[in-house]
Amino acid sequence: MALSALILGLMGSLHCIGMCGPIAFMLPVNRKSNYKKALQVSIYHFGRLLAYGTIGMVFGFIGKGLYIFGIQQKLSILIGIIMIALVLIPFVKLSSLSISKPIYRIISTLKDKLGFALKRKSNDAFLTIGFFNGFLPCGLVYMALLGAMAMANPIQGSFYMVLFGLGTVPLMTMAVYFSSAIKQTTMRKVKKLIPVFIVIIGILFILRGLGLGIPYVSPQAAKEVVSTELECH
Predict the structure, then answer these.
(1) Second label for 98, Cα 20 to 30 Å away, from 37, 161, 181, 220?
(2) What pTM was computed for the model?
(3) Is 22 in contact with 118 (CB distance < 8 Å)?
(4) CA 115, CA 108: separation in Å to the nearest integer?
(5) What is the pLDDT of residue 230?
(6) For residue 3, which phi and psi values (nearest 5 degrees)?
């Protein structure tokens, strides 16, 4: 399942270009020194991965709490259903819900902080930009967080999100160096495949929860064996 995070990041990075690309384009990198530019871009990515790892750990804790109550398999099935439902339900209907209002307030705050950081050129500014960038609302990040929750472990949840972030690094780096080389037609074609891949991941989570005994895909849940033998002294 961890591999699905990396592939989701790779497939979804074209979507990330649309959402976070403007931030990558506006990074105040040093255009005169390739070394300093590479260092600054690396620090920016480290900030994003740090943010992803942090929220992945939080959602891993949530999943662990549900695991303690013995509903890990049901959680995996539920997360798979939610992933598929989010692909099928138009985003316009979801954004019309009142629950989205607090999210927009958070976005506004993050944008203000990003705007301030983008005016600076120190290394810590790139870390700040990347970190806050990682917290910006994004549909693909939500999908990855559902996967992190299904891991039912804070360390694995954090690792899942870091792998997702690593998957976005190659194309996000290209956005900084070769923004003109990314063709819009290619982006549109790949974006059409993203919902398909999310549905596939959703199905994998459902199969994982069903415990059908399929190696690596749907391992059978371990059953607790209670011994009825009594020791005689």
Answers:
(1) 161
(2) 0.71
(3) no
(4) 11
(5) 44
(6) -65, -30
The range of the structural domain enclosing residue 137 comes to 2-210
Q: Would you place residue 224 in the very low, low, confident or very high pLDDT band (cuts 50, 70, 90)?
A: very low
Strand ranges in 76-166 using DSSP code E only, listed in sequence order: none
Whether 48 is covered by a domain: the verdict is yes
How far apart (Å, rounded) are the C-alpha atoms in residues 157 and 191?
A: 25
For 26, phi then psi, to 5°, come to: -90, 0
Give domain status of residue 124, yes or no: yes
Residue (of 69, 81, 9) closest to 45 by Cα position: 9
What secondary structure does DSSP assign to 72-92, as a single string? HHHHHHHHHHHHHHHHHS-HH
* Assigned domain for 180 exists: yes
Q: Are 24 and 16 in contact (CB under 8 A)?
A: no
How many distinct structural domains can be found in the chain? 1
Structure tokens at 69: 């109550």
At position 187, the amino acid (one-letter code) is: M
Tell me the per-residue pLDDT of 100-144, one tens digit each, with 9 for 90 and over.
Answer: 455 545 556 665 666 666 667 677 888 988 898 888 777 778 888
Asked whether residue 22 is assigned to any structural domain, the reply reads: yes
Q: Which of 76, 83, 38 is nearest to 198 (CA)?
A: 83
